[in-house]
Amino acid sequence: MLLKSIRFVASMAIVGAVLAADWELHVNATTAALSLLLAILAISAQLGLAEALVTSVAAMLGFNLLFLPPVGRLTIQDPQNWVALAAFLVTAVTASQLSAHARRRAAEAEARRLEIERLYALVQSMMLTGSARKTIREFVNRVVQVFGCTAAAFYYRPTDEFVRSGPESKVVSDHELLAESEVEEVSVDPIRGIAIAPVRLGGRTLGSMALIGSPPSPQMAHAIANLIAITIEKARALEDASHAEAARQSELLKSALLDSLAHDIKTPLTSIKAAVTSLLGSAAGADQELLTIINEEADRLNRLAAEVVEMARIEAGKLHLDKQPVPVAELISGALSELPLKGRPLKLRVPSDLPPAEADRDFAGQVVKQFVENALKYSPEGSPLEISAELKGGKIVIGVGDRGPGIEENERPRIFDKFYRGRRHRFDTKGTGMGLAIAKGIVEAHGERIWVESEPGQGAVFYFSLAASTGGRES
Amino acid sequence: MSAGKILVVDDDPQIRRVMKATLVGHNYEVIEARTGEEALETIPKESPNLILLDMNMPGMGGLETCRAIRSGADTLVIILSVRNTEKDKVAALDAGADDYVTKPFGIEELLARIRAALRRSPSEGGPRSFQLAGLEVDFETRRVRARGADVRLTPKEFELLRYLVGHAGKPVTHRELLQAVWGPDYGDEPEYLRVFINQVRKKIEVNPAKPQYILTVPWVGYQFVEPE
Question: Residue B149 pairs with which residues in a beta bridge?
């Protein structure tokens, strides 16, 4: 109020001073009117409409009294008087409106500048952490500081988590945040002093955020929501990338470890085996028997090491298949050449027009070998083996059958499990119990099937399938 | 009198010890190297008849060492390795090795391989030269031209081709071929033969996947045919 009165007094003083100056200088009426107009323009631009209107009237009266003849008397009837008053009033209204508008724009621009400055400060203060969660916590704390709010809250939909800056943020309930994440628009409630905005990136909803205390404009709330969405995504991408890198490193390490394990076990076995076989050549009697045991056990240890490493490689998904067309006859003859058949009768049923299989030769050959080894192990000496290969439904199916005791139905699903041994054979066979599990791992790595059919008492037939090669190659 | 001078290249001292003891016991003269680099220094000084080369060594490694040896000399090389996949065998043979033995091995097997390698090239006689539309072989000068270009066959590959051409039109069994080219101690290594046959096919066939000259006879062996 006091300020207002001072401004009125100041306005009057300006008009008075202008009139006094004009009077002293004996200027003509036109000059006096123009100088008064300038004074009113200045007052309306600087001080406001009310002051300008009052001074317009005062200026008109002063002008009439001092410069319009008859000088020293107020003659309102004079039309010149009305023109001057109208000019003064129009100037006062127009100039004060223009300047008020300009002032408002300046104030708005200033407010926006301040908000952008704060947004920038927020971006600066959000350190790029490697996790979305840390980023949200950081954001909730920072936004309160930077925007001078009392509290902030965030709902993160991917993990269904609510992050709050403190208990003051309870003004906005979990439910409100949840509801906001479903809508598109920012909502600002000046009465409760809150702004809530959905947080989205592209079409994806990340959640919602609420600012409590001095809520920013809806546009600013929207900008903040966009900013946090981008920051969370960046943090997530960083997190994913570092996870993927860590996983890749660990796989590489595993693979290298398996290779060096195989090498490190086989190196001392090489010395043992070379030494003992060398001694075997010249030993006699009991020594011969003992050295034979060392030799056989070295072989067994070697097989065991190979199988453990191979099993580990299968389980780590590190089996590198080099698929190419492989004639099935070569797979079978290769496996047979490596095994002591001990005069077993062999029935082979392999059609000559069978297409080659699309497989890794080493690994597929290993499956056949494992089947034949199993058949030899679990069927009586001298009983025949049957090996067949045929094209069935576009797949090559290879089977190895024996005339052993067969496999009970309840044991069949478990026979391909690691370390599983048939009930009857639990104590009487050598081996690691990994052979069939490895065979299964190899077949499955090819994307194919392995199974057993058996008539208890009649024998068992182990089968596996391989893709038929379409490339074609002489077989 | 020594049966031959053998250089044992292995980074594992125990393996060098047992090899030395055994090979000396079988009348070979044995020298040692711990690394590929050391082996390459030793070879010109000692001129061994045969090199037993470990595949997995720190530094140069067996394959690189083998290639380096091949670029300078015709010394026989047998690669010893704990790996037993076909990929590894092919890599070793591609590097110029004459033979490949998987660790651990029985000493008799290794001695047999050494004896076979040291035996002079087995097959004499047979055709002197041979000419087809896309393939020319001169057995005297050991020159092979396929599709108008010279191709280089290793001694083993060349012997393989010579034997098959000498028996053209007839199937040759795995055993017969192995014994003719490698020696009487061989015969149970069809997968081994396959590696060399594939190598020869790659060098002389237009399409190694659909060979015209060297055909596989399922269950039996291989056969050289003259394409119509």
Answer: B146
